[in-house]
Amino acid sequence: MRYKSFLTKHKQTQKCYPRHIAIIMDGNRRWAEKKGKMRIIGHQEGFKALKKAVRFSILKNLEILTVYAFSSENWNRPIFEIQYLMKLFSFMLENEMNNFKKYNIKFKVMGDITLFNKELQNNIHQAEKLTLNNNGLILNIAANYGGRWDIIQSVKKIINKVQKGILNVNDVTEDTFSKCLSTHQLLPVDLVIRTGGEKRISNFLLWQIAYSELYFTDILWPDFNQYVFQDAIDFFISRERRFGGF
What we know:
- Helix content is 44%, strand content 14%.
- By secondary structure, the protein is α/β, with parallel strands linked by helices.
- It has a single domain (18-146, 190-238), classed as Decaprenyl diphosphate synthase-like (Undecaprenyl pyrophosphate synthetase, 3-Layer(aba) Sandwich).
- Strands 3-4-2-1-5-6 form a six-stranded parallel sheet, with helices on both faces.
- Helix 2 (28-34) packs across helix 3 and helix 4 (79-95) packs parallel to helix 6 (118-130).
- It is globular, with a radius of gyration of 18 Å.
- Keywords: Cell shape, Cell wall biogenesis/degradation, Magnesium, Metal-binding, Peptidoglycan synthesis, Transferase.
């Protein structure tokens, strides 16, 4: 999509309701530490908060919810914590399939999942396959994902097409590039929410959120609820989105 046509298309929806919300779920470990509990308890409570966020997204007729579950930098955490997170992810997939079916949720994962164990990889593929034809909320999990990784993968795809003569280098546009990203089948991100008090993007959707609204809250992720979620949505609705224009 050319820049001018992008502006023209979106000027009509400056005060619209968000269709695609992305969340950086930060604060599980700090939540646990503040309560004198083990870190894994914080991750357990974070999983419960995610389930609440999904239910609220459905209630509010949100089209896409993308959550930053495990970044490519998270491999630097203690091995026992990583192993627990992988087990928690598998548990979620094994135990939430009935809810995916009941609430018509389409499940997707973006990121390099080849570094996960085979069981988790199989569970991911199975969940994506079984929910492929669901047409309700798209729950998009960013797992072993990084914005820089995403951009590099897109560049490699474009280079490959140019080398094969499928694409002329002079025809490479923002639209061409966007179609090679892991979010190419999704609507643009309207709103990014980050919990935990930090005010940074942390290598999340670097290309995709160029014109997204950003909402930061001090609430730690396990304490995230429908009231905080609604505050973020109200913030978005109050914004005048100019997309770089006047």
